[in-house]
Amino acid sequence: MVDSTTNSRSGLPDNVFLTTIDAAANWARSNSLWPMPFATACCGIELMATASSRFDLARFGAEVMRFSPRQCDLMIVAGRVAMKMLPVLQRIWLQMPEPKWCISMGACACTGGVFDTYAVVQGVDRFIPVDLYIPGCPPRPEQLIAALIEMQSKIMNTGTFDGREFAHRTQATGPVPLDLDEIRRAKEAALVEGLEIFQPPKLG
């Protein structure tokens, strides 16, 4: 006779289930995304609207925007990125711990948008890997919520322990970020031998 509270297939109680560590970690990560907002233009207004009480972003566990990259695992690039801002974007991305993901929000972040000029980055995926793209100028909050749901599905289905999810993201083709402090130190340590650091006044 089998106890009614015992699962006849596995011999375990009904309130016990089996899973893998990878699946449990993916479930926890997908439902507790900590966004790092990188808002530079009008898409940032829609990003702030998405985090308001009207759309209830807390349903997806991503309502708290973290402004410390070392505490975040999801970067949302909302708006255009100027070339002078690019090293800052790359440095923030490198400071975020693995596993991490990136959403390119808006036409300007995806392709440069209407700013087809040398001063604006023509797509952030040239410099940092991007997992999801949100078209629009600017996209509505519903589109960002749909992207978060898609990101949760991606995290759940691909895994994080062996890096399988990173095989399907875009690969950055632009230059590596510059370490400005290292360049500054190199200039300060330049040899000064032979330089005319003092020129006496010429009389007559």
List the helices and strands and how they pair.
Blueprint: H1 21-30, E1 35-39, H2 42-50, E2 74-78, H3 86-95, E3 101-105, H4 107-111, E4 132-134, H5 141-158, H6 180-188
Parallel strand pairs: 1-2, 2-3, 3-4
Helix pairs in contact: 1-5, 2-5
Quickly list its features:
single chain, 6 helices, 4 strands, 4-stranded parallel sheet, Rossmann fold, globular, 204 residues, alpha/beta
Give a verbal description of the structure.
- The chain is of the alpha/beta class.
- It has one domain: 3-Layer(aba) Sandwich (Rossmann fold).
- Helix content is 30%, strand content 9%.
- It has 6 helices and 4 strands.
- The chain has helices at 21-30, 42-50, 86-95, 107-111, 141-158, 180-188; strands at 35-39, 74-78, 101-105, 132-134.
- A 4-stranded parallel β-sheet has the order 1-2-3-4.
- β1 (35-39), α2 and β2 (74-78) form a beta-alpha-beta unit.
- α1 (21-30) packs antiparallel against α5 (141-158) and α2 packs across α5 (141-158).
- The model is unreliable at 189-193 (pLDDT under 50).
From the helix content, strand content and strand pairing, which structural class follows?
Answer: alpha/beta
The CATH architecture comes to: 3-Layer(aba) Sandwich
Please identify the top-level CATH class: Alpha Beta
Runs in which pLDDT lies below 50 for 5 or more consecutive residues are: 189-193
